[in-house]
Design brief:
The protein is of the alpha/beta class. The chain contains 15 helices and 14 strands. Helix 3 crosses helix 4 and helix 6 crosses helix 14. It binds guanosine-5'-triphosphate, magnesium ion and zinc ion.
């Protein structure tokens, strides 16, 4: 809106009046009811959010889309339709349908209203696994999602097809379980650090599981991340060995999401921790143990203690959305704790002199892998030039593991 006003003033100052391009555009917008409708709805989204959540938007996409979804849903709902709504939770996606587990434990494949889908075309789905929704049975076997309840949190990454959009891969969770294999596929600490940043940004607790302990030594990684304050576990999931029981105890009562590269053993780990789910997980991952990208879409499973866990498809690369180098630095606990000792209060820890972080990397009190992943974030996700830091500390471009955009 501010930009539109700026444009109007500019046109008048330059004496173009009604004949200016901007004037024509404005008149076209006023005459076009659809366009006007869109603008109204967008501004109403802000009111809706302020009213419902009493908070600011946590994302420029996810939350505002959620509000838009609800608004469109209300618009598209048949006015005579007074069918009772039932609360439930999105537990998966099947093609164009959303699977919702209702409060009575029944699961229903639900449609998003056709009119609604038409209006949302071209936009990322506002629904994520873990979303609490209200559904209606409109006829025998025919269910629709009516609205989404406000989220307590959302884990999001950058969308692979449109980097200006973010993709919410789980909502309303207590814990992100980052799974990494020591070998096959080879561990990428850059990816772990990116997941940690995603968890920090969403204020969700994170734990790291180093799986395939039979293929290599988990100890150095365990030690590194424990020192940073994250709980870690070392497992051999396919044989249900290692810290399986400890992990299960730790996750008890928590809604958790298992994430990591394809083939690291997320589904195997879930099977090992909760053997009674094996059959159901087997149905979803029908070709489990056969190659890559076995799990193709996120799925949540209810646990006996009333919580739930979410299995997600593997990713190879992971884009993160964050506004500035300072934001990344403050969410890296090892960097954040030394930040105040840098000469410049807004130090990005790259080209600046008297930088406490670079000094700590030289002395070994900050792990090179952590600093390398920090540089890779600034370079790939913010487009900053970090070449002087790379040169100064002799950190190669491919150190830090994972670059940019996810490709699942
Ligand atoms: N050597 C070894 N292999 C394992 C271990 N855990 C799992 N695997 C094997 O690793 C392969 C991949 O396991 P999955 O559980 O499907 O991995 P995933 O992370 O769910 O993979 P996606 O669904 O593709 O994301 C399977 O062949 C498992 O048998 C382990 O601890 N050691
Ligand atoms: Mg899987
Ligand atoms: Zn610095």
């Amino acid at each position: 809106m501010a930009n539109n006003r700026g444009g109007k003033d500019k046109g008048q100052r330059q004496g173009m009046g009604d004949r200016s391009g901007l004037g024509r555009l404005r008149r076209a917008n006023i005459k076009n009811p659809t366009r006007l409708g869109n603008l109204t709805r967008l501004s109403e989204d802000e009111d809706y959010l302020a009213l419902q959540e009493g908070t600011q938007r946590s994302s420029h996409t996810g939350v505002s889309l959620l509000a838009k979804f609800n608004r469109l849903s209300a618009l598209s709902k048949d006015r005579d339709n007074d069918l009772p709504t039932i609360r439930g939770e999105v537990c998966g996606f099947e093609g164009t349908q959303v699977t919702v587990r209702c409060e009575n434990g029944e699961e229903h494949a639900c449609q998003v209203r056709r009119r609604l889908k038409k209006m949302l075309r071209g936009e990322k789905s506002p629904l994520a696994v873990g979303d609490r929704v209200e559904v209606t049975q409109v006829s025998e076997g025919d269910w629709v999602v009516e609205c989404v309840l406000p989220r307590s949190n959302q884990l999001e990454r950058r969308d692979s097809h449109n980097s200006s959009l973010s993709h919410v891969f789980a909502a309303n969770v207590d814990c992100l379980v980052i799974v990494a294999a020591i070998e096959d596929p080879c561990i990428k600490t850059g990816l772990i650090d990116r997941y940690l940043l995603i968890a920090h940004l969403a204020e969700v607790a994170a734990v790291i599981v180093f799986n395939k302990s039979d293929l290599g030594d988990t100890q150095p990684y365990d030690q590194l991340y424990r020192q940073l304050g994250y709980p870690t576990f070392s497992t051999q999931a396919d044989r249900a060995q290692g810290d399986i029981a400890a992990l299960r105890d730790f996750l008890k009562g928590k809604a958790c999401v298992f994430a990591g590269m394809s083939g690291v053993g997320k589904s195997s780990l879930i099977n090992a921790c909760y053997p009674h789910f094996a059959a159901r997980i087997g149905v979803v991952s029908s070709s489990l143990h056969k190659g890559r990208h076995t799990t193709t879409s996120s799925r949540s499973y209810p646990l006996a203690d009333g919580s739930r866990l979410i299995d997600t498809p593997g990713i190879r690369e992971l884009g993160v959305t964050f506004p500035s180098a300072l934001d990344a630095a403050l969410h890296y606990p090892d960097i954040a704790v030394l930040h105040q000792h840098c000469h410049f209060p807004n130090c990005s820890h790259t080209h600046e002199p008297d930088c406490a972080i670079k000094q700590a990397v030289r002395q070994g009190s900050i792990a090179r892998s952590r600093y390398a992943s920090y540089l890779a974030l600034l370079e790939n996700d913010l487009g900053l030039d970090v070449s002087s830091a790379r040169q100064e500390l002799d950190i190669a471009g491919d150190e830090g593991g994972i670059a940019g955009i996810e490709t699942d």
